[in-house]
Design goal:
heterodimer, A: alpha+beta, four-stranded mixed β-sheet, 14 strands, globular, B: 576 residues, alpha+beta, MTMR12-like_C (chain A), Prot-tyrosine_phosphatase-like (chain A), PH-like_dom_sf (chain A)
């Protein structure tokens, strides 16, 4: 059934749910039957449940059936005019159980409230169920009309099944096993067929070999001492080490390190410096000796035999607990705090969460390491107690800044694969999929994605992918099907395969990776990942020599006088450091004895010089690190907040326009190609517009002659997401002002609400 | 460095610029790089500093200078220092060796003289600037044709010449649009009841609903609650001109406390008893003094450097964004009343030339996509700001050394900031780019153009500004390419409803922090999109050429293939 539905959904948009906005929706199609996946079973369900769309009134609420399966919580509205799935695995009202942060039942009349876990009892009949989700949604269901018993049962079921006692109870195990048997025939050589470019998984030595070659790291080799995980349970089977280190030595050194994690090569600069990550040394007594040996080997692998710098990240970056607390706070501010009331102190509240401060700290630390690798030409070791958290963030950020390859889609995925999945980031614990140990939960991967977004925000043409891609990637963490986010190490991932098969006949069972986007989105929807502005090697639209380089249009200047005044814009172009005290009167700022001489650190000078040149998007990219340039990632944090949703606006309108432009360029290109081999007889046919639609790269297609008068309604700052019903906040269909007045009490004294509902 | 090498030499080519004392061995204390040695040249238009050891130049129109200070010669080395406080968010400091006392005096005096020509009985440089541009910016705005564009006169509104010689109101333009059934004589009586004679007149009319935005000053109610039958009848006429609604909204931009306090000075606000069917709303926007103080605090926070910690709370403590929010919120309420409520609105503050101008122009920008084009925006400024008497001379203090003047206030900067906020929320809705807005603000101070001189239309006419000075729009319209936004999509029917929340309002770093060299000119999206537009244009051209080629060949090769299409390719729309 699943396979059959697939085809139909391919043509559907990511965004059809946004049809909500249209004044007259088409007549509703009969509600489609509930789709079960192989292995999915209904645990409990309740009828006559109301899903709250709006806190103020319930006229927009949806009536339907609430279902709890072993995979998800599903709500099937009785008549939902826009009930069409775009996500291939989840419907508009579905939440995977792993996505649930907290399950809260409420009894209004008794004023009771209980947070549900596994195997719990409920002493009151719930009138409401509130689901707090890890993707920042908050959903509310009311049971006024549902039977008290069935309401209670479905709540308990959701509470119970969202707290699995064991990893193997996660739905992925059920699903993969079944699916495997259904789709066995489709695979070749034990691996599934992947179309197009393949993301290297770094689970085999050939992937590492290619990476060594790509970065010209000739003094490094692939080492297989950890095959079958005999040395370290958390390292991958294949690692890269200095050629001067023999397997025998490595085995010996491994004893000194936490979790037997020998140092791992990450990346080589073309100047020969290497980035290496390392866990801490267990016994302080052997620390110096071990360091010495490692340093020597790394130095030997450097063409100039230059020194090695060790950066201890535990000492200069926030720990996982602080990061988790910051995230909880900023989530609270963005999604829970009342909108209008939090306006007045919005900026300082955001500051107090410390989230942006941490984002900046990680970017800053990474830039510092970039300085050593690139500016000082020395190899750098980043060290962290376990080498499985902070190191993941910093090593990937450093590589993202230094190597444009990682700013392509495939490159980025391989980076995550290499520095997170294979290096053994403990996704299972950090995501807290089993809800066993809250102290282990920490959104490091989200923090990393936010850092990437900050760079993308500053250099919009440098990345092949979009912020929608980053957001969707973060959401995928909460779907318990992808091996990427289910496990804490390669070993665990490997061993899990065996457990998933009901009858273990084939040891090479395949768990899908999140990079198989076609499992989640249609080809068309995946084009939302493509950045029309991307300037890269493989970029479709530029850099193939057809257009001369576009330098900044030289200003037509009508007089030197004018030019002068225009250029005065750029006073003090040369970079620099704080030399004047900021506060105080003019007189104190301009003290006569003021000495401008300032000790400028070499790294400051290095950054200053870099910033004084125009940025090369194919080369090194350093983000501006001033606090004023750290922005809140609005799509991620505010996408569900109806009050914050700009209708017919937001960055998507620029994306829309640029995509259409690039699509036109693609069409023209293909017309040109057709002409090139064209004889009069093979004149291109009328109306033929470029490649067939499934091969087009852009989500938004070139204009048709009958261009609309207004921007399409689905273009909002939340696109491709829809806030309606996802935050159980007041959702406004009326005039903008009624939205504005919500909570704005200062005006209510002079004007009644009634006057506003025109 | 943006300045071409030849600038230094060519600066003085323009005949109108007089060159004054070049001074060697001057130190410029760059707050970012430290001390730089070089030469200073001061002309009647600018201060020019060229560094001896590097490419660095500093080119400052003297109009930007708000205050010049000698900083005592306390230094043992005998240096003398000058501090310049600028209107565009920076402070500069120079010093040089005190070799002869006369030299020091002369630099200081020359600066004091040419930075403040008005105080010294000299002409503002704009009157000497003789550049000729292909476009004539003074022709951009013509009140009658702008009203005609809006469909005025129509059956409810007429154009009156009652103020033709500025007799009724000397701060209003000569062309006004008023309700049809109020004769000129009555207008004069209404003007007696409105502060400075600024009666309610039409700013904008909705093309479909006929709901209008009208502007005026406060009614002269006073402590005794005076009424004016003519004024009441007049507002009734404004309401009646819109058949769609039996209500009229009066938006008073001030906080209600301030509005009440104005009664002591004879002003006040409309009582709902006197004006039937009218509803009065206060928009809580603070006065020019509060805004000036807020911007001063902002300068403290952003210049020269931003502290590493507490950036957001420091920004919050300036309240700048909060003020921006209140202004935008007011404009949004007006736009919503007119668009969604189909109700006419009257907007005023005390005199109706500061907050009122902000509110009417912003709401018109939201309501009418014409004002989002470059020309439309110029018309909007000419109309709502310049012709309706925003007192630019007083608020900016062109060429006036009295930097503590309480009449100075960043009202117009605030408005441009609000426009920038709108362009951030609707990046494809404006024909102009950020550089256009920055350029307007730069020439607000530079005194190079006549556009922002004087306080009213009458004064500009008296000073003969259009004859004697160049319009900023001449410069801008002669190189539109520089100022246009390649992302612009000309949706004809798009009313902007921004989200007026601190979640979306941002500090305009491209303006307020632009002096910081670490604020690199970002790789701008619009540059990249210009490349794409050029690429498309080129491909289109090549496809067209090939198309012609093929058509010709096929026409000559076989005459019997009559059905051969002359244009077989769907043209892709090109609008580079």
């Amino acid at each position: 059934a699943f396979a059959g539905n697939d085809k139909k959904k391919t043509e559907m948009h990511f965004t059809t749910q946004l049809l909500t906005f249209f004044p007259a929706p088409p007549p509703p199609p009969p509600p489609p039957p509930f789709v079960y996946f192989p292995g999915e079973i209904v645990v409990n369900e309740a009828n006559f449940v109301r899903k709250c769309i709006n806190t103020e009134n319930n006229q927009d609420d949806l009536w339907g059936k609430l279902i709890c399966t072993n995979f998800k919580v599903s709500f099937i509205p009785n008549d939902d005019p826009h009930k069409r799935l775009s996500h291939k695995l989840l419907g508009e009202h579905d939440i995977p159980l792993t996505c649930l942060e907290q399950v809260v039942t409420v009894n209004d009349t008794k004023g009771k409230k209980k947070v549900l876990g596994s195997n719990q009892k409920l002493k009151f009949n719930p009138t409401e169920l509130i689901l707090y989700c890890k993707d920042l949604r908050i959903l509310r269901f009311c049971f006024n009309e549902a039977g008290p018993e069935s309401a209670r049962k479905v709540c308990l079921a959701i509470g119970h099944y969202s707290h699995p006692a064991d990893l193997q109870l996660l739905f992925g195990f059920e699903y993969q096993g079944r699916r495997y048997h259904e789709f066995k025939g489709e695979r070749v050589n034990g691996y599934p067929q992947r179309t197009g470019l393949r993301t290297p998984f770094f689970d085999r030595s050939s992937d590492w070999d290619r990476e060594i070659k790509r970065t010209s790291a000739s003094e490094w080799r692939v080492c297989s001492i950890n095959e079958d995980y005999i040395i370290s349970p958390s390292l991958p089977e294949f690692i890269v080490v200095p050629v001067s280190m023999a397997d025998q030595d490595l085995k010996q050194y491994s004893l000194y390190f936490t979790d037997m994690r020998v140092p791992l090569w990450c990346w080589n600069h073309h100047n020969g410096s290497a980035l290496v990550r390392m866990a801490s040394v267990v016994d302080p007594l052997t620390q110096r000796k071990t360091d010495q040996k490692i340093f020597t080997a790394i130095t030997r692998s450097h063409p100039h035999r230059s020194e090695v710098l060790k950066s201890e990240l535990d000492k200069c970056l926030p720990n996982i607990l602080e990061i988790q607390n910051a995230f909880i706070k900023i989530r609270q501010i963005c999604t829970l705090d009342p909108f209008e009331e939090s306006e007045e102190r919005w900026l300082s509240t955001i500051e107090n969460s410390r989230w942006l401060e941490f984002v900046r700290a990680f970017l800053k630390q990474s830039a510092e390491i970039v300085y050593y690798l690139d500016g000082k030409n020395v190899s750098v070791i980043i060290q962290e107690e376990e080498d499985r958290d902070l190191n993941c963030v910093v090593s990937s950020l450093v590589q993202l800044m230094l190597d444009p390859h990682y700013r392509s889609l495939i490159g980025f995925q391989s980076l995550v694969q290499k520095e997170w999945v294979m290096a053994g980031h403990r996704f299972l614990d950090r995501c807290n999929h089993l809800k066993k140990n809250d102290k282990e939960e920490s959104p490091l991967f989200v923090l990393f994605l936010d850092c990437v977004w900050q760079m993308m925000n500053q250099y919009p043409a440098a990345f092949e992918f979009t912020e929608a891609y980053l957001t969707v990637l973060s959401d995928s963490m909460w779907i318990p099907l992808f091996s990427t986010f289910l496990f804490s190490s390669s070993k665990q991932r490997e061993f899990a395969k065996n457990k998933a098969i009901p009858s273990a006949e084939d040891p090479t069972l395949y768990f899908p990776s999140v990079w198989e986007w076609s499992l989640q989105y249609s080809t068309k929807d995946q084009t939302l990942f493509n950045n029309p502005m991307y300037v890269g090697k493989g970029a479709a639209c530029v850099q193939n020599g057809e257009v001369k380089s576009f330098s900044r249009t030289k200003q037509k200047s009508f007089s030197s006088t004018l030019r002068g005044s225009a250029t005065s814009l750029r006073n003090g172009l040369r970079g620099g450091e704080d030399t004047l005290p900021r506060r105080g009167s003019l007189m104190s700022e301009l003290k006569p004895d003021f000495s401008p001489a300032k000790d400028e650190s070499p790294s400051e000078r290095y950054f200053k010089e870099w910033f004084s040149r125009p940025a090369d998007l194919h080369g090194l990219l350093i983000p501006v690190l001033m606090p004023s340039h750290m922005a809140l990632w609005k799509l991620f944090f505010l996408r569900w907040v109806p009050e914050a949703c700009i209708s017919k606006g937001g960055p998507i309108t620029a994306y829309h326009k640029l995509s259409q432009l690039v699509d036109e360029i693609e069409i023209l290109r293909s017309q040109l190609r057709q002409y090139k081999g064209a004889s009069p007889a093979s004149t291109p046919l009328k109306g033929q517009r470029g490649r067939p639609s499934e091969q087009r790269n852009m989500y938004f297609r070139a204009y048709s002659p009958d261009e609309p008068q207004t921007p399409p309604d689905y273009l909002t700052s939340s696109f491709p997401f829809n806030p309606a019903g996802n935050l159980c906040r007041r959702y406004v269909y009326g005039t903008p002002i009624s939205k504005f007045l919500n909570g704005a009490r200062i005006w209510l004294s002079t004007e009644t609400l009634a006057n506003d509902t025109v | 460095i943006d300045v071409n090498r030849d600038t230094y030499e060519s600066i003085f080519n323009c005949l109108t610029i007089k060159r004054y004392i070049p001074t060697q061995d001057v130190t410029y204390f760059c707050p970012f790089t430290g001390a730089l040695r070089g030469t200073v040249i001061i002309t009647n238009y600018r201060l020019f500093f060229k560094c001896t050891d590097s490419e660095f130049v500093l080119d400052l129109p003297l109009g930007v200078v708000s205050r010049v200070e000698k900083i005592g010669s306390a230094s043992s080395r005998g240096d003398v220092s000058y501090g310049l406080v600028c209107k565009d968010m920076r402070n500069l400091r120079f010093s040089h060796k005190l070799m002869e006392d006369t030299l020091r005096k002369s630099i200081f005096e020359v600066l004091m003289k040419f930075a403040f020509p008005v105080s010294n009985g000299l002409q503002i440089f704009a009157f000497e600037y003789g550049q000729v541009f292909p476009e004539n910016g003074w022709k951009v705005y013509d009140a009658v044709s702008e009203y005609r564009r809006q469909g005025i006169p129509n059956e409810s509104w007429r154009i009156t010449k009652v103020n033709d010689h500025y007799e009724m109101c000397d701060t209003y333009p000569c062309t006004l649009a008023v309700p049809v059934n109020i004769p000129d004589e009555e207008l004069k009586r209404v003007s007696a009841f409105r502060a400075k004679g600024r009666i309610p007149v039409l700013s904008w009319i909705h093309p479909e609903s006929q709901a209008t935005v009208t502007r005026c000053s406060q009614p002269m109610v006073g402590v005794n609650g005076k009424r004016s039958k003519e004024d009441e009848k007049y507002l009734q006429a404004i309401m009646d001109a819109n058949a769609q609604s039996h209500k009229l909204f009066i938006f008073d931009a001030r906080p209600s406390v301030n509005a009440a306090a104005n009664k002591m000075k004879g002003g006040g606000f409309e009582s709902e008893d006197a004006y039937q069917n009218a509803e009065l709303v206060f928009l809580d926007i603070h006065n020019i003094h509060v805004m000036r103080e807020s911007l001063r605090k902002l300068k403290d926070v952003v210049y020269p450097n931003i502290e590493d910690s507490r950036w957001l709370s420091n920004l919050e403590s300036t309240h700048w964004l909060e003020h921006i929010k209140l202004i935008l919120a007011g404009a949004l309420r007006i736009a919503d009343k007119v668009e969604s409520g189909k109700t006419s609105v009257v907007v005023h503050c005390s005199d109706g030339w500061d907050r009122t101008a902000q509110l009417t122009s912003l709401s018109m920008l939201m309501l009418d996509s014409y004002y989002r084009t470059i020309r439309g925006f110029e018309v909007l400024l000419e109309k709502e700001w310049l012709s309706f008497g925003h007192r630019f001379q007083l608020r900016i203090g062109h060429g006036d050394k009295n930097h503590t003047d309480a009449d100075r206030s960043p009202v117009f900067i605030q408005f441009i900031d609000c426009v920038w906020q709108l362009t951030r929320q609707f990046p494809a809705a404006f024909e102009f780019n950020e550089y256009f807005l920055v350029t307007i603000l730069d020439h607000l101070y530079s005194c190079l153009f006549g556009t922002f001189l004087c306080n009213s239309e009458q004064q500009r006419l008296k000073e003969d500004v259009p004859k004697r000075a160049v319009s900023l729009w001449s410069y801008i319209n002669s190189q539109l390419e520089e100022f246009s936004n390649p992302l612009y999509v000309n949706y004809s029917n798009h009313v902007l409803f921004p989200v007026v929340s601190l979640r979306h309002l941002e500090l305009w770093v491209g303006y307020y922090i632009r002096w910081n060299p670490r604020m690199r000119p970002q790789e701008p999206i619009h540059l990249r999109s210009k490349e794409l537009l050029a690429k498309r244009a080129e491909l289109q051209k090549r496809v067209d050429e090939l198309q012609r080629d093929v058509t010709n060949r096929s026409a000559s090769s076989s005459s019997d293939r009559a059905g051969s299409p002359t244009r077989s390719i769907t043209p892709v729309q090109t609008f580079v």
